[in-house]
Amino acid sequence: MGLAELLGAGRGVTSVIGSGGKTSLLAALARELSSTVVLTTTTHILPFAGVPLVTSDDAGDVVAALAGSRIVCVGSQAEKDGKLTAPELGMDVLAALADHVLVEADGSRRLPLKAHAPWEPVIPACSARTVLVLGASGLGRPVREVVHRPERFCELTGCAPNDVATPELVARAANTEALADVALVNQADVAPDAARELAAQLGVPAVCGSLRDGALLAR
To answer: What is the C-alpha to C-alpha distance for residues 193 and 213, in angstroms, rounded to an integer?
Structure first.
């Protein structure tokens, strides 16, 4: 069974949130899917290497790009850092142009775990599926070192910043937020037992594995 099927990423808009491999998941899904794909964001994302980039607000430019490449990245050019911000074209418009629209819907500052602020994530109203990514490399380490927005994580779980991010605490935070339809516990090659324990405690269907190694297992 492929990654898209395990996560239920069907046609239309799929939003990816969390930390510890969002961009890698978007790229992996785009490679696996056999029809046209738009990669985009509602927050910030770096352009994908080797993927045509469309930064205009003209739907015709997206159509033309998809005619030459099955996978296209669409966004607005940010003023600095080379990052893209949300495209001018609406997600519903992009969904009418491509079979799949894969959206990175929040940021994590490259940390393996995160808790969401009240204004996060930015999930499009037309999103059919939301996938939560959690990085197992953060398990067993202090919350303050591995969690983006550690103060929010502590509020959700009742722990202290110096406490260890255990599978139970990470699952408690994710289950309290209840933002996703399905979860991917990534980086399981780093801490396989802890990753499986986390996946087992999540309140939504979970896939545990390593995007880097291509090894995935449904809960």
So the answer is: 16
Least confident of 27-31, 75-79, 207-211: 75-79
Quote the tokens at residue 91. 């997600």
SS3 130: strand
Mean pLDDT of 134-157: 98
Q: Please check whether residue 5 lies inside any domain of the structure.
A: no
Query: What is the CATH classification number for the domain harbouring 110?
Result: 3.40.50
Instruction: Quote the pTM value.
Output: 0.95
Domain that holds residue 173: 10-218
Measured CA to CA, the distance from residue 156 to residue 150 in angstroms comes to 10
Output DSSP code: residue 48. Answer: P
The CA-based angle 19-25-28, given to 5 degrees, is: 165
Task: Flag whether 129 is in a domain.
Answer: yes
- How many structural domains comprise the chain? 1
Query: What pLDDT shows up at residue 58?
Result: 96
Give residue 99's identity as a one-letter amino acid code.
D
CA distance 192 to 135: 11
Rounded-to-integer distance, Cα 82 and Cα 95, Å: 25
Phi, psi dihedral angles at 88 (to 5 degrees) = -70, -35
Q: What is the pLDDT of residue 109?
A: 86
